[in-house]
What we know:
The complex is a heterodimer. Chain A has helices spanning 6-11, 15-53, 58-75, 84-91, 95-127, 135-150, 153-164, 168-192, 197-204, 209-241, 252-260, 264-299. By secondary structure, chain A is mostly helical. In chain A, helix 7 (153-164) packs across helix 8 and helix 11 (252-260) runs antiparallel to helix 12. Chain A starts with 5 loop residues before the first helix and ends with a helix. Chain B is 80% helix and 0% strand. Chain B is built from 13 helices and no strands. Chain B has helices spanning 6-22, 24-27, 30-53, 58-74, 84-115, 124-139, 142-153, 157-181, 186-193, 198-229, 241-249, 253-282, 285-289. Chains A and B meet through helix 2, helix 3, helix 5, helix 6 and helix 7 of A and helix 3, helix 4, helix 5, helix 6 and helix 7 of B. Chain B: It is a multi-pass membrane protein. Chain B: Residues 91-274 form the ABC transmembrane type-1 domain. Chain B: It comes from Hansschlegelia quercus.
Amino acid sequence: xxxxxxxRAVLGLAEGRARVLLGAYDGAVRVRRLQTFAILAAVxxxxxxxxxxxxxxxxxxxxxxxxxxxxxxxxxxSLTVANLAGDVAxxxxxxxxxMRLLIETLLIAYLGTLIGALGAVALCFAASNNFxxxxxxxxxxxxxxxxxxxxxxxxxxxxFVIAFGLGPMAGVLALxxxxxxxxxxxxxxxxxxxxxxxAEGVRASGGNWLHTVRFAAWPQVAPGFASYALMRFEINxxxxxxxxxxxxGGIGQELISAIRQFYYSDxxxxxxxxxxxxxxxxxxxxxxxxxxxxxxxxxx
Amino acid sequence: MxxxxxxxxxxxxxxxxxxxxxxxxEFSNRSRGVRLxxxxxxxxxxxxxxLWALDFSLVRILxxxxxxxxxxxxxxxxxxxxxxxxxLQSLFETVAIAYLGTLVAGLFAFPFAFLAAKNVIxxxxxxxxxxxxxDVFRGVDTLIWALLWVNVVGxxxxxxxxAIACSDFGSLGKLFSEAIETAAQGPVDGVASAGGARAHQIxxxxxxxxxxxxxxxxxxxxxxxxxxxxxxxxxxxGGIGVHLAEQIRVxxxxxxxCLILMILAAVTAIDFVSGKLRVGMIxxxxxxxx
Lengths: 300, 290
């Protein structure tokens, strides 16, 4: 099709030359298409295999999907315009308890993030290529961080609940330990990206290792650290909301019992509280993070 | 300091008053100091309150640490107690859940992300609404989704797939829409000036820029979902977490350490493979993203 009259007009080339070029172009496109097709085929094959392993049954899904909509319909509160205040009060009949637990959830996330950040600061310099002088120590620190962030916080929580007893303390420690691992990795990557000239300056004027960290690295990395810690706080709020599933404190306890005992309107009431909190914290933390990064830009 | 001759030091100190008057603002760092002190005070106060409100006690921490020490001894040596084949099978199930869940999430998030991108849909109501929808999906934790889906499709890995698909639809949709918004405007204008319609502009102007980013993000999520897929078993949504939770509850800690080692090995292997694929897809930049 392409070879009809317009070819010379479009390319402004001799007929033969244009044909050669177009042929090469078609060939290149064909190779790319073939590659794309191969990748797609691999993705689909893996998906089918996974669907088999994961016992995916589209028929169960379509047959039971009405249950999901049903469920959504059921958890909706019955609110009427005539008696709105009364209905809302009815819906949130345990508002005091839930609010206390929600605050507990936030405190769990806060303390967990704080423990995580302190631990990560303590470990990240030893784990970095540029400040970690001892190779064996660096290797050990990195493996430790990897272990801490690969084991999910809920698994730590399950163990800690047995060791420390039921309650928010186990949740804080579980979130904290997991955060040391994930923040530690992000922190040492920041440390590895610092400008080393200030460090050379500090060392040249007789500063020891601690002085280099404090006066050369710290001013460069602190805004980044704070920004990542805030982001971790957002993630930890979500994590703390399910700590109660395993008895490690927070609002998850109420949520799981409401779901398991089919207190439908309670489910929506608690979910809405969690959602609003998470969205508000995300928005607030985002503002603060933008300002932190802006500050970094101004001082640079 | 040690090496500098005393004359230099005395001279420098002698200049200090003059410098202080000349650069008053540089020397009076008071507002910064006050701000730092306020922040530190607030953090300390909040921490103290949190420790009090959450019932922290040194006694419990110490006795708990002792028990944790006992536990770690009981974990050695790791052993599957003859259930290795079962564990391995559920490990594959976990990986399958992560893969399929992320794939489904990506497939739904991809078109939806265009709705949430300002540069594609300038209508504020549409993109604002689309973002809040993503927020709702993202704000509900994977474990909660798993609980809800278990109610619908019954216990088993399928509920896990749906749970991961739901919560990742939110996260991937947000990240995809950010990728679309940071795409360069030049190619889009180029297609428009050559007479391309809106659909052409998206297909030939935006899509080639974002496909590598989207591929990299999806791979990264498969990786991180292998971790989250290990825990949804705790609420009965399939995978290795079912065994993990059960063995922890009965304090069969040798099995627990074996299971944890298996998870570590699987995650490391997937990290490795997806790292290679990412580098192949977007070059060295992919490594920095991980």
